[in-house]
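The protein record quoted in full:

***
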Amino acid sequence: MNQLLEQFILEARDTLEKTSRDLLLLEKEPDNMDIIAELFRAVHTLKGNSGLFNFPAMTKVLHAAEDLMAAVRDNKLSFSAVVADNIFEAMDFVSTLLDEIEDTGELSTDYNEQSTVIAESVKSVNVPNPDLTEVTKPHKENEKEVSSKENSQEDLSDIPESVLMECFKLAQAGNVNLVTYSPEESSFYKGEDPFLFARRIPGFIWGTARGKEPWPSLEEMDCYRCTVEFRILSST
């Protein structure tokens, strides 16, 4: 098992313990917004960190749990025993997955169906309370998120482990985004420098370039036609 995965498991278990403590506190103080915010951040961190690995069953459940706690945090839903039970169930499932990952170094697809059932159960609780009419501004965590297909998994196999480790640490404080930049084929004719543009993307951590199509022979290659795309990790 590599160092990044070991650190993920260790920190995920610590976060799970914190979520359990926060849930127990909220059973006594269901209107304590400070604890609610802490619980949201814990689930948000778990989901973000799980996205660094190919664990779709875990990420799916955590995504639903994060959305549920975001609704409570934003006063769209009251914290209740039903909310607590669903978050507890989601965290128990994540703990089970961590056990398997720790034992085998990977996650079996056998959990995919169960993850769908749990995620749908959590989503069914996320129904806005009509009695809560206060409209609040989005929190910074949501403002920084980049839209993506739910539960989509990016191939991270070409990213060095040392870079993934750095991203793992950065994700504790905020989001790390994977950006794909595909320049126009006529970029060079317009006087543009796609490589320089890619390097100047705010929060640049790491990047690579790859062909958008199979490389032609040297005799057929048009050196003024831009046929590469860039994959970039950014902290903004």
Notes: Helices lie at 3-28, 33-50, 56-73, 81-104, 112-125, 140-143, 161-170, 194-199. The two ends are 29 Å apart (CA to CA).
